[in-house]
Specification:
Elements lengths: L3 H5 L3 H7 L6 E3 L3 E3 L19 E2 L4 E2 L9 E6 L1 H4 L10 H9 L5 E5 L5 H11 L6 E8 L1 H6 L4 H4 L8 H15 L26 H23 L5 E6 L3 H4 L5 H13 L2 H5 L5 H18 L2 E4 H6 L17 H15 L3
Parallel strand pairs: 5-6, 5-7, 7-8, 8-9
Antiparallel strand pairs: 1-2, 3-4
Helix pairs in contact: 4-15, 5-9, 9-13
InterPro entries: SGNH_hydro_sf
Protein name: GDSL-like Lipase/Acylhydrolase family protein
Organism: Streptomyces radiopugnans
Length: about 350
């Protein structure tokens, strides 16, 4: 018997294959990025791993950008287009082909990336890009979600997804290189092993402040890197489904309920999933962006004012259906005055 997820969002099976952990592509400095040269009817990437975006008459990617100035849609999995039935149905493609087509849009997003990885992605690939007119960073959720991890995993630059596995493997590697010492200074059996106090998740207010500080710091660095290009930077807070509306559509209710049975979403993220948290986080980010002269948009209330409870927007609580992408792309272009 097929699940509701398979029946209502069959394209997600392609993304399951695309995200196969056995095929994770580890990269120096960035930690991980998309599978390169991936081909399917749903998602396709170039030689570097960037997703193809589609205009009305042409296609482009970071590896082969169109001639002339371009606009970048940066961020994590939502602007990448998890949930879209094809490359043409992603946000970058809908902006390029319909809602803001005067300048081509490139998909510059990284699946499961935090703000530091988004910054590194730009630093590592800026030399491949033509003239930049606009950079829209559609992000924010991952930094807040990762803020619950222990300080020793977050370090100075923020935690990244699956970092626990990384630290475990690095400790195993160090252990293999250790040599026994005799006499004074001899290691104990447990010497060198990472010891950490039992972790207590920080209060929500502290986590919001931490995520905003990280985002602001990395956004300031992005501004410095992008300043010579003359590109305008806009930060858009990624809209979690529960930040948009409290009552999901019938299709969303079916899929969300099924996903809740096999995940620990509410245990891990229940406190950040409330609409109140979304508004507090948005206002703190707005203040941080205004201090840097960066345009900011909390698109959640904009979406909420433009849809009904019958609109099926999400394939899960973070990623859009094609209809959701269509709605958000139009609202994004209108809100930012893009043509």
């Amino acid at each position: 018997m097929s699940s509701q997820r398979e029946l209502l969002t069959p394209q997600m099976l392609r993304y399951d294959d695309f995200d196969d952990r056995a095929e994770t592509r580890y990269l120096p400095y960035l930690m991980y990025f998309h599978r390169a040269g991936y081909r399917s009817e749903t998602v396709n990437t170039d030689r570097l791993g960037f997703r193809i975006s589609c205009g009305a008459t042409e296609q482009g990617s970071v590896e082969e950008p169109p001639k002339g100035p371009v606009r970048l849609l940066a961020g994590s999995s939502t602007p990448f287009g998890i949930g879209a039935t094809s490359d043409a149905a992603t946000m970058a493609s809908r902006l390029w082909s319909k809602y803001a087509p005067s300048v081509p849009w490139l998909n510059f997003a990284g699946r499961s990336h935090n703000s530091m990885q988004e910054l590194l992605l730009f630093l590592m690939h800026r030399h491949l890009l033509p003239e930049l007119e606009e950079i829209v960073v559609f992000s924010g959720l991952n930094d807040l979600a990762l803020s619950r991890l222990p300080q020793w995993q977050r370090g100075e630059h923020g935690a990244f997804f699956n970092c626990g596995e990384y630290f475990e493997q690095m400790e195993d590697l160090r252990a293999r290189h250790r040599k026994p010492k005799r006499g004074f200074g001899r290691r104990s059996a447990a010497a060198g092993a990472e010891e950490h106090e039992e972790h207590v998740v920080p209060p929500l207010g502290e986590r919001i402040a931490y995520a905003v500080e990280l985002t602001a710091r990395h956004l300031a660095s992005l501004r410095l890197l992008a300043e010579p290009t003359g590109a305008r930077i806009t930060y858009v807070l990624q809209p979690l489904a529960t930040w948009v509306r409290e009552s999901p559509s019938p299709e969303e209710r079916a899929v969300f309920g099924e996903l809740d049975e096999i995940s620990n979403f509410w245990e891990l993220y229940g406190d950040i999933a409330t609409m109140e948290t979304g508004r507090k986080y948005a206002e703190a980010l707005r203040t941080a962006c205004e201090a840097q002269g960066v345009r900011f948009l909390d698109i959640s209330p904009v979406i909420a004012g433009s849809v009904t409870e019958r609109d099926w927007l999400y394939v899960d609580r973070a990623h859009f259906t094609d209809h959701g992408t269509e709605v958000v792309s139009g609202l994004l272009a209108d809100s930012l005055g893009l043509s």
